[in-house]
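Hello Y.,

Per our agreement to keep a running log of every chain we model this quarter, I'm adding this entry. I've kept the format consistent with earlier entries: sequence first, then predicted structure.
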Amino acid sequence: MSKQATLNNVRLARNGLSRRDFLSVAAAAATVTIVPRTVLGGPGHVSPSDRVNIGSIGVGGQGVEDMIEFLANPSAQVVAVCDVRRVCDYSQFYYKGIKGRDPAQQLVNETYASQKKVAKYDGCASYVEFHELLEHAGLDAVHIATPDHLHAVPAMAAIRRGKHVYCQKPLTHTVRESRELANATREHGVVTQMGHQLHATDKLKRLVEMIQSGAIGHVREIHCWAGASNGGLQRPEDMPPVPDGFDWDRWIGPAPYRPYHSAYAPFTWRNWRDFGTGTLGDFGCHIMDPAMWAVGLPTTMSIEASSSRFNDESYALANIVKYRFTPPGSTKPISLTWYDGGLKPFRPAELEPGRELPRSGGMYVGDEGIIVAAHGGDANLIPESKMQNYQAPEPFLPRGETHYEEWVHACRGGPAPLSNFDYAGPLTEMVLLGNIAIQTQKQLEWDSEAFQITNDADSNTLLHREYREGWSL
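Predicted structure for the entry above:
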């Protein structure tokens, strides 16, 4: 069976669950008839001692999506799951199905039972506390898909124990956390990857190759936008009971304590400053990624922002952030402008009548042309007549592995993943500095080497925050 068929079967098993029958994962997972080479032996067989033993921290929506990729990889073995929620109903949310540590543990066990053609498999452990997972015997690596405010602490704890780390985007909740994780990665020599999966796709790499091969000459302007909006909320006043099986204190983690409310978890935490990073944090590491990969991450920049109204609790519904910098190795400045909440750049004259800019994406303006690329879509020169006459360069960026496969391969001694923390850390810093510009409504001057906003001392206090007692990086 193909890997895609494997993934489809596991997803069907996951999404077929309901609140009533989530404990009957066995029945759903029985549809997974995967017999990989790890069972059959022969060419491509990976012995159990050579597999990367992975613990999954945070098995909600994206966490389960990530975990499914590892379940289908013959070079990986999911040995433990961890979540502060025993079970959580995602049926009304994007990811659907039932999540949490119990369903995730059962999904792992039933998937491996099906792969091994055995009646029962119980090799996956379950934890509420991530420190306990990190002590699991034989653990090689962790995958982290918690809310943003809980990324850095378990990631750092894993790195200091010599465990490889795959962490969802944005890498961290604060700028300083990103810098500290990148530094720790180099110190401890572990393999890292930030989870923005499009980074490994052919479409994104073709966009980078077009820009770097001179398809539009010198890039003067970059425009990146997301149609989504995360913000505009007020703190609720009522205090409903914490759902059964939900360790709310651990979910709050290093953030300032507040009573439980469904307005925060499990779905809308991204809207709140204490827990998420807003639309820019959500989509910036995706949509600004090809831009910064193509031109290079600068060491100094100026950043300013304009936004709709916001409060101390939640993010603005719509934002514009402008970054100005000179890319490494160049003497010519570039501007990158970010838009969200339905805002977009002005329509370029080169775009034909009847053709619209995508809902989310990027536009790259150079001395010799313009490229438009939808988020996750193909990159095209405009107008269409120019694209029809374009000769693409021979691919020069590596191909052939997914984002997840890159990381597992690297954990087994292969080349470093393309979005390791040396790249993902500075990219996340740039994204999160945009949030500081929005919050202060000031033009800020950033010096990366000094790790300092040089023209406004007060803004430097926003590079990090004080953790709640009992939590530390």
